[in-house]
Amino acid sequence: MASENQQLHFILVPLMSSSHIIPLTDFAKLLARQGQDVTIITTPLNAIRLNPIIQRAIKSNLKVQLIPLRFPCQEAGLPEGCENLDELTSPDLTKHFFVASGMLQEPLEKVLAKLVPRPTCIVSTNAIPWTHEIAQKFGIPMYVFHTISCFTLVCSHSINHSKILETVNSDYESVLLPDMPHKIEFKNSQLPDMMRKNSSESKNMLDKVKEAENSAQGVVVNSFEELEPSYVEKCKNMMKNVWCIGPVSQCNKEMLDKFERGNKASIDENDCLKWLDSVKPKSVIYACFGSVSHISPTQSIEIGLGLEASNRPFIWIISDRDYSIEVKKWLEDDTFEERIKGRGLIIRGWAPQVLILSHSSIGGFLTHCGWNSTLEAVCAGVPMITWPMFAEQFYNEKFVVHVLRIGVRIGVEGVLESGEDAHDRVLVKGEQVKKAIDQLMDEGEEGEERRKRAREVGDMAKGTTEAGGSSYSNTKLLIQDVIKWRMHQ
Ligand code: UDP
């Protein structure tokens, strides 16, 4: 436990999106296990999702608490109850969501002014640029928590600084990134919207994020040093005080913590485990596309047909967003569910992803390459079929397929444009899904080598967040940095 002068109070502020809230909540537990007080700022509806995990953490004597702030939906032009990015009914509302998020600054300042013990530092995820103003007002340091890898940070830095994309004539021409530890090529079409579209709006947002990052006392990355040593090194040269503290999902040791992580699971725990236990080890394809992707009905049906044609056991997550009337009707009218009976499990809604991925029956993960999902598969030693869709997901695909060499590509070439029918314009057919599954599950030399490497990176991840592990030590360094900062005030 921390001695009194080392007793700190961390304020964690995530963007209200599952891919930020979930890892920051895990990190809260890791900090609390090192004896620190931790407060997570949230909103009433997100607090309902997090509460079971937090209550269990409190019962095990961790000093963690949630403070819900009212999310100003109405004022920002959002439908009532739209407190998480996964609740957005249209991409046009994203702008409003960020406006609402910015409006939390004032209420948060009021809460912090009265908080006991007094806050000693703020850790906020990369999409919350305004916390550095709060930190300045309170005279405490602010740290940025990156929900992306060092590889992604280095690639974006290289693309921005070399201005390499200015030399290309088409969206689909590949460019080689200069000065990288591996041969890394990108196409303009694969870059996040923010980087491709030179709109003043995205420039403004990027500038604010950059300004916050520059004024931060340090940067915390949900990754681990053994996974990407040369990119961690490069990050350390690019920024001051970089600490890899992950994979944070490893803090979930108990079955219930894995099961209830992030949201209420849409399957009974025992049914899920019974199904997983009933299939052969390393045989199941797990297909899940994160917390915010929208998969069109036509695309969903092709995914279903591909999984069916693969002739292998599978778990297919159809999120509430994608469980449309068309998909429901297809599942009911077609004989799909009958045909896959006993072999395929469909979860409609939220999946207990970490629990599923860490089960010995999982043989491959069909993923949209969100960084959290990627890292969770890495921890489980599960090879991936990569199907990036937007944001930094193409960087993650590159990392999985070309650097770690534990994945096969489904073969998409560019970020999805916005709009309901985005998938239909670049439809991945069922045969393509089947082909990628066959390739991943191939029992020949290539497949075996890939599985071996996946097991090896999984082994590397083990213990990193436990006493003696690199991420545990880095979390300690972060704590010491706050203590040092306080002593010099
Ligand atoms: N997740 C989950 N169940 C689901 C969907 C997502 O537990 O049904 C979790 C997943 O384990 C990960 C997070 O939600 O921790 C998604 O983050 P990621 O960065 O992979 O993707 P994003 O949601 O940002 O697209």
UniProtKB/TrEMBL annotation:
Q: Does the keyword Glycosyltransferase apply?
A: yes
Molecular function as annotated in GO: UDP-glucosyltransferase activity
Its EC number is: 2.4.1.-
Keywords carried by this UniProt record: Glycosyltransferase, Transferase
Q: What Gene3D superfamilies does UniProt report for this protein, alphabetically?
A: Glycogen Phosphorylase B
CDD domains recorded: GT1_Gtf-like (cd03784)
Q: Which InterPro entries match?
A: UDP_glucos_trans, UDP_glycos_trans_CS
Glycosyltransferase: present as a keyword of the record? Answer: yes
The protein's matches in PROSITE patterns, at most eight in alphabetical order, are given as: UDPGT
The Swiss-Prot or TrEMBL record describes its family as follows:
Belongs to the UDP-glycosyltransferase family.
Name this polypeptide is given: Glycosyltransferase
Q: Which organism is it from?
A: Escallonia rubra
